[in-house]
Design goal:
It contains ten helices and eight strands. It is α/β, with parallel strands linked by helices. It has a single domain, classed as Zn peptidases (Aminopeptidase, 3-Layer(aba) Sandwich). An eight-stranded mixed beta sheet has the order 1-2-4-3-5-8-6-7, sandwiched between helices. Helix 1 packs across helix 8, helix 3 runs parallel beside helix 5 and helix 8 crosses helix 10. The protein is globular and about 50 Å long.
């Protein structure tokens, strides 16, 4: 059986399993209000995100570990699960001075509280850890610090790291060459069921991203973005502002992510995809 047939069979199985899954999707007003609440000051960004997490219900399980080399800490919100396995969802909140940093990467960071908010409506099997990283633009300092602080047991318990970096410039894309094959296939399966666009766009020439720190410890990772060749000029420039966001595409990316996380919770670490049970609403 060739690779194309295997992929089609995998997507068909994934789509069947996902069809019974239930997930929460919030309206556009909330998503757009949070992405529009950016500040050009990174310290204020961290404060805004913390407030968002608290409003979303993450007050008891929030922490702010310091990061060497930058003033701002990482911001960590945990959602305890019923099992021992962990899924990390991350996005950096810092930006370069050239623009407003709405696309890179307030677009990803401001989705974290809403994704947490949707998952907390029902018990999850995995513990979800939402991390908004500091210092990504200075050499991924926040994710380096976070990964360095993970014990051997923490690494062994972590099933996936899902990274969002630079959303809303167009349809959702995956850095396929730097993403785990299974995680990529599962995302494609969800997109297929929801009839949402998904593209494989490799961005090695742009630089690196926080998920690469997790790959160094052999944690399966996926990076979700929206970059294409025509939009590269927006990064690290005055063009990175609210007007660069295509809000329809941005909301589609949020919708896809909300469903994808529930799907990962349903299928990851199961004996087989066909035996997986859908998550309760």
């Amino acid at each position: 059986m060739n690779n194309k047939i295997l992929l089609l069979a995998f997507l068909a199985t994934s789509a069947t399993a996902f069809a019974g899954s239930k997930y929460v999707v919030f309206g556009r007003e909330l998503i757009e209000s949070r992405v529009k609440s950016f500040s050009r000051n990174d310290t204020k960004r961290e404060v805004i995100l913390k407030k968002m997490f608290i409003e979303a219900g993450c007050g008891e399980h929030i922490s702010e570990p310091a990061v060497d080399g930058v003033k701002q800490p990482d911001l960590v919100c945990s959602l305890p699960g019923q099992g021992e396995r962990v899924i990390i969802v991350g996005a950096h909140f810092d930006h370069v001075d050239a623009g407003d940093g709405v696309v890179d990467n307030w677009s990803g960071a401001s989705l974290l509280p809403t994704l947490y908010q949707g998952l907390r409506t029902a018990p999850t099997m995995h513990t979800f850890i939402f991390v908004s990283f500091s210092g990504e633009e200075r050499g991924e300092l926040g994710s380096k610090a976070y990964v360095k602080g993970m014990s051997k047991e923490d690494v062994e318990r972590t099933s996936a790291m899902v990274n969002m970096d630079t959303l809303g410039l167009g349809p959702t894309a995956v850095w396929a060459s730097h993403s785990d094959r299974q995680l990529t296939g599962l995302l494609a399966g969800v997109a297929h069921v929801l009839k949402l666009p998904i593209n494989g766009v490799n961005v090695e020439r742009v630089g690196s991203t926080d998920s690469e720190q997790f790959a160094r410890r052999n944690i399966p990772r996926i990076t979700i973005h929206s970059l294409t060749q025509p939009t590269l000029h927006i990064l690290h420039s005055p063009r990175d502002n609210l007007s660069a966001l295509r809000l329809d595409d941005y909301y589609d990316s949020y919708h896809l992510m909300a469903a994808y996380l529930v799907y990962l919770d349903t299928l990851l670490d199961q004996p087989s995809h066909t035996d997986a049970q859908p998550a309760a609403k």
